[in-house]
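Render this sequence as a predicted structure.
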Amino acid sequence: MKNKEIKILLSAPRGFCAGVERAIEIVEKSIQKFGAPVYVRHEIVHNKYVVDDLKNKGAIFVEELEEIEDKSRPVIFSAHGVPKKIPEDAKNYNMTYIDATCPLVSKVHREAENLHKAGYHLILIGHQNHPEVVGTMGQLPNGSIDLIQNEDEARKYKTKNLDKISYVTQTTLSVDDTREIVKILKERFPNIKEPMKEDICYATTNRQMAVKNIAKKCDLFFVIGSRNSSNSVRLVEVAKKSGCLNSLLIHSQSEIPYELIEKSKTIGISSGASAPEILVNNFINNLKKRFTVSIDEVEAIKENVVFRIPKKLN
């Protein structure tokens, strides 16, 4: 029997962004320079394959600095950013630390600090307990920044400081959802100060745009990425909202739903900003074993962003 034919629309850009590439390179270069082990506070990026690969090369992952037994070894802060207290703690321990915070997250940190210094009360639009949100809120004294997660919270939000109020956002949010939250805040607080430049990063925006571009043509849509990766989970939501209700996240424990694929003619594939391309290739190779596959890569925009690594690693 001839294999069923399936058309794959491959979303581009997808996968690694410049901040993720830089963070991984920082860990690899640190191991080369300082030898193993080097410690990493929190998953460097939210992807099991990447984390396991770096463990094999000599990285040890911890959640807090206290867990590090040998404080003479260097520690790297993850791409999501850390509260101000963490580098201070590292200094108190006399630890060498390397900050792999994505420059676009650092930009939000500086923005928040400058607004606070200028007397503004801040709102952060983001997801509670996400490490990036913890890091951004941790740049400012308690009580000077409030978290808003959705439209409902935006409608109910109360603040004493009506005159000087501003907002910043997590870099990996849904562009459309965030726009709705901002709209509500602007209606309620007409003089709210907005960021000089969009906080949602280029990679999040581009990957969402690329998914929107093809989702409505697909019977089934797969996003390769981790469950704790904000930008990957958002891509699934975007695919659903853009016309492909059967959209699923494929993570390290996922079984490939062949019975659903069997019923589909066209499937879309994208991957989150922390998912390596090898995972996309592995997924497609698994499909090729069962189906006759044709692939059409649909590129929405070209990316050429590169971030330099810290001088001390060169």
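Summary. Residues 18-34 form the longest helix (17 residues). The chain has eleven helices and twelve strands.
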